[in-house]
Every structure is written in C-alpha cells, then in structure tokens.
Amino acid sequence: MKLCALLLAFAVAMPAAAAWAKEPDPAKDKKEAQQSPQGELDLAPSALSAILMDADSGTIIYEKNSHDRLPPASITKVMTLLLVMEALDDGRLKLTDKVQTSEHAASMGGSQIFLEPGEEMTVEEMIKGIALASGNDASVALAEKIAGTEQQFVNMMNEKAKQLGLKNTHFVNCSGLPAENHYTSAHDIAIMSKELLKHTEITKYTGLYQDYLRKSSPKPFWLVNTNKLVRFYSGADGLKTGFTSEAKFCLTATAKRDNFRVIAVVMGEPNTKTRNAEVGSMMDYAFAQYTNYPILKEGDPIGKVKIEKGDVPDLNLTAKHPYSVLIKKGASTQNIRHELKLDGVLKAPIGIGQPIGRIVVYQDNRVISEFPVESPVSIDKAGWWKLFKRTCAGLFT
C-alpha cells in the first residue's frame, strides 16, 4: 500500500514538475510558428496562398502555394488598372477625358462610388474610385470607355494575361465580383502587379490614403483607401485589396525603401488584421535581408540596334524603368555586368511593345538575371525607293 501511495503521489507531481522545468519561451514559440512542417520559413501562416517578390527583377523571395487557383475578389482590378494605364500610355485615353456611366456600370453591387446612370467623371476620377474605394461601378465604366463593352474588355484582360505568361488566370469580369471560372493565383497577381508598377504614376493614386470625388457638388464623396498599409507601413504606396465571402481577405501590397521595391501578395486570409500583419511581416523580412543592385536607371541608354528594311535604319533603346538585381545584404557585387542580346535579326514591320531581345545580367560568367526588352515604337517597312536611296548612300560612305 505504501508503495502504491508513493507511486500515485509521484504521478500527480510529474505534470507540475514538467511545467516548472520548462518555462515558456515566447521568442522560440514565435520562431517555431513561422516554420512550415518542412522547416522552411512561413511568413504567412494564415494565408491559403502567398508570394514575396522583388518588383524590379521579379526574383521570388518567399512563396507558399503560389500557383494555386483561387478567387481573387477585387485584386482583379490590378489587371483592369494595367489596361487603363496602357491605354493612357499609347494615347487611346487621356486623364481629362470624360467617362459616362452606363446603366450596366451603375448597376454593379459590392464596393462602389455610387455612380448614377448618365453621370460623368474624368478618367482620373474613375482611377481614384478604383484605386482607393475599389469601385466596381468605376471599373466597368472605364472598361466600357476603353473597349465598348465589359465583355470585350474582359477579352483584353485574358489576352494580356496570356501575353504575360500567366498560367493560372482566367477573368470573367473586370471587378472581381464572384463568378464561375473567375480565378488567378498569388504568383500571377504578383506578375500583374509588377507589370502595373512599370507605370510609375499608378502609385500617385494607389498610395493616397484619402481624397474626394464630386468636390464641387453639394455632396462630395470621401474616399478612404481600403489598403491601410499606405498609412501605417513605411514606404507602402499600393496596390489593391480584395474581399468576398468566397475569396476571404486578399491583398497585393507594395512598398519601396532606398530604391528597393517589393511586392507581397496574400490570398484567403481570415481577416484584415491578420492579412495586414502577415503582409507587413513579409515586407519586413525582405527589407531586413535583401537589397538591390542597380543595373540601369530610367532613361539610361541600352543600345542601338539595326532594323532591316525598316522605315528607320536603326533604333536607340533606353530604359523605360529602373533595372536592378536582388542580392542578399552584405553579398559581393563585384564583376556584375550586363549585355543586350537580340532575338536574331530585327526585320520590319515591328509593333510597339513587341519583344525584341533581353538584357542579360552576369556576375563573372554566371547569369544572375534576365529582363525582356520590347520595342518602344512601331516601325513600318520601308518602301522600295527609301531602301534604294539607303543602299546607294551606303555605297559612298
């Protein structure tokens, strides 16, 4: 009996002794919580899918289920804004152009700026309505302005997705309202976001925390950015939030510090607080561990290329945006160089935006990054008389 009592007392004491012997370690618990079952860093444990990318080079710093097809909600509008910015770039649209709201655009539910049928706003005002308030009505109004109908604009969105090589994206509308067969992935969103950020003026809108529409009317409409990181995270200036009950809470965010810009995407987060916290953690990690090494500044010459049978004999290429490579902080930057490599002989006609080559970046003899190069202008084929005169001139020079 005495032995049984002793054993019983020992068994009762064991949990208390174990608890006393192992004090909780918050730092260790946090570190362990950030590790995946495989032991890899998990910066977004609550997200269904996530990715962290260097905006200049496209180098992936961290990813989690990044190619899974998921409903994107209003992050869809990244592609909508990309096509709007392209239309502005090539002159099909001006910021001051008036956009009239159709019955269809005004009928959109969800997030909106409450456009009335027949109401007019400028293109710039509509962009603000999309970038800050995620207006579904503004998205459709601009889509119809550019393409005539929302469906035709959606065709353009899917064509652009194809051009960008997005394998897990298909759009059914330009707003992100729930629809069958409307999906994308965190990886594809990051690529769209990277492309949108090439239009550097977009952050003039996505980086605003608040603004007004209908300023001169009796009822001005106050816009507050749905992306609170632009106010509370240092360097954040975009890009787009999203929420539906199907998609849960989504965000593609960007921040820039010391000329180093990152893109962080999360999908399927349980709430806004967790979404913002995990995106903040992802960007903190990038800024703490990495930096970029500049290759070319915007406007720097890339090279002069010959155009066979073109109405111009050659083309001067300049950097449309900064080019850089991602490096670990403290890593060597010695012997980094770049070369322009063309896709064979360039023959007219060449369309604006047509791929013509790539910039290849080396460290010593190892390729560390590549950037596509597109024609900045359209080049028509030269007529026979111009080609004849050019040939004759060449004989005497």
Could you characterize the architecture of this molecule?
- The structure is a single chain.
- With 397 residues, the protein is an alpha+beta fold.
- It contains 12 helices and 16 strands.
- The strands form 6 sheets. A 5-stranded antiparallel β-sheet has the order 2-1-9-8-7, with helices on both faces. Strands 14-15-16 form a 3-stranded antiparallel β-sheet, with no helix packed on it. The chain has a two-stranded antiparallel sheet with strand order 3-4.
- Strand 5 and strand 6 form a beta hairpin.
- Helix 3 crosses helix 6 and helix 6 packs across helix 7.
- The protein starts with a helix and ends with a helix.
- The N terminus is likely disordered.
Identify the notable features of this structure and list them briefly.
12 helices; five-stranded antiparallel sheet; disordered N terminus; 397 residues; alpha+beta; three-stranded antiparallel sheet
How many strand segments?
16
Query: Unreliable stretches, pLDDT < 50, 5 or more residues?
Result: 1-39
The H/E string reads HHEEHEHEHHHHHEEHEEEHEEEEEEEH
- The separation of the N and C termini measures 116 Å
- Tell me the strand order in the biggest sheet: 2-1-9-8-7
The residue fraction in helices comes out at: 25-40%
Quick synopsis:
With 397 residues, the protein is of the alpha+beta class. The chain contains twelve helices and 16 strands. It has a five-stranded antiparallel β-sheet with strand order 2-1-9-8-7, sandwiched between helices.
